[in-house]
Amino acid sequence: MSTRRSWIGWQFTGPFLAVFALVFLAPIGYAAYLSLFRNRLIGGTAFVGLENYTKAFSDPQFFEALSRVALFLVVQVPIMLFLALLIALALDSGRLYGAGFFRISVFLPYAVPSVVAALMWGFMYGTRIGLVGNVNDAFGITLPDPLSPDLILAAIGNIVTWEFVGYNMIILYSGLRVVDTALYEAAAIDGAGQFRIIRAIKLPALRGPLAVATIFSIIGSFQLFNEPQILDTIAPNSITTYFTPNVYAYQLSFGGQQVNYSATIALIMGVVTMIVAYLFQRRSIGAGR
Amino acid sequence: MRPRRSIPLTLITALALIYSLLPLVWLLISATKTQEGLFGSFGLWFSGDFAFFGNIADVFAYHDGIFGRWLLNTLLYVVAGAGGATLLAALAGYGLAKFDFAGRRAVFAVVLGGVAVPPTALAVPIFLMFAKMGLTDTPWAVIIPTLASPFGLYLMWTYSRDAVPDEILESARIDGAGEFTTFFSLAVPLLAPGLVTVLLFNTVMTWNNFFLPLIMLKDADLFPLTLGLYSWNEQGTTAGGDVVFDLVITGSLLTIVPLIVAFLLLQRYWQSGLAAGSVKQ
Fold first, then answer.
1. Taking chain A, what is the end-to-end CA distance rounded to the nearest angstrom?
2. Which CATH superfamily is domain B49-274 in?
3. Nearest residue, CB atoms, A15 vs list B91, B102, B207
4. CB contact under 8 A, B13 and A12
5. Which spans are transmembrane here (chain B) (predicted)?
6. Radius of gyration over every alpha carbon of chain A, rounded to an integer in angstroms
């Protein structure tokens, strides 16, 4: 019986595992293999051991790209999650008119492809057909250009916030809905006000959902690619070929034919993302128990 | 005890509403303008000429109707990729939840680790591997990588564990039904809400996919909508290229409408799905 059950379990799980092995495990292995070689103009591909890794760790362009997404992570993610938290708490308070309409409207940008979001905001940021240009014309002023090199990262931060604030809000809102409402009534009888209830009951209940939202945001920040790649066509002077690690890996493969070094960068970023996500998860879940 | 509704709180929250909807309103209004109108009028109000239907016709007529082709490609990638991913995740999630087999724990650990591996980090290595296998610049290059959804598997595992009682399965076995017959006739109806959620999220991911097709595809006849829009916008910014911002804008609107409609119609499902997936730990 048990061998039959075992065989059937594998039949159900097998097809997924086959694809998973092909598109998750094999590429990781292949990237690790490629990262040990280097393509030289003379002499073809040669085994270089860990040379690509030592090169990456002393590569100022890679370091700049990595610092940029780290800065993005530290600034954009807290802003977005704080906004998502405020909206989720407002919705959960039951004191809004038209709460259902709010919920679906704030979530809608999640359904918009990042390509369309970046194109739309890119146009709106522009001075030619955009809102920034409209405001400048209407008031005879010159607003700071969001597409300038100084502001482009903040401009991307706004696009990413717009895309994902609703998604995170829904995760947090779902977390609030499963709180036992008897707790609120008990707290109210004890004389606790709204803010005390939020601090003592709602925020602790959101620890898990907040951790989930943060981990997905960490992964997203380190992997930033679509928005800068698309804005590059609108603001070519503000986006460098090494703007984010992923942009850099893409350029190395497709602009520079340095596939071995590109695979190294992709692999390092995968590992960095997993480590940061894992450390965060251990800290946030571990502290709760 | 129903809390009293608050006008000030509603007004403050309305700022978030405006922030979320303003770009979409801008897009909708801009899609009614000609290219001259786009350059010469205020972004949040209509220009003199109402070119909405003309723009839609232009989008579908430009370059021998390639936008229609991109739409069909996107549908193919969604049906095969997102549909396939949902089926594989459902089978595997059910398998992990309902059968205690040798190696089950190892499978689960590996796949959960997969949730933390960002697909974008894998895209370049997958490209290099697929190039060796001769799969690049074919529809398979976009479909196969979307078939594995570790997060979908996680959701389906949670659903199967909670929504399909073991007693039903035992009685089906006593009746002599095969395991796959039991899955499709008994378990699938019970898993329906979970299946719709996973399918919806896989659909969004596939419909919005950009990095993978950008890397994999050179032939414009194989592009999905996102890559097509990107190429239209890019040609307008290169020297001597055809400037078609009006088509980019109207095409963008046409690209997002199907998903927004799907989200509005299936609200009940994705909300319960997110609740189950993100809160239960």
1. 40
2. MetI-like (1.10.3720.10)
3. B91
4. no
5. 7-29, 41-62, 74-94, 106-128, 140-160, 180-201, 210-232, 244-266
6. 24
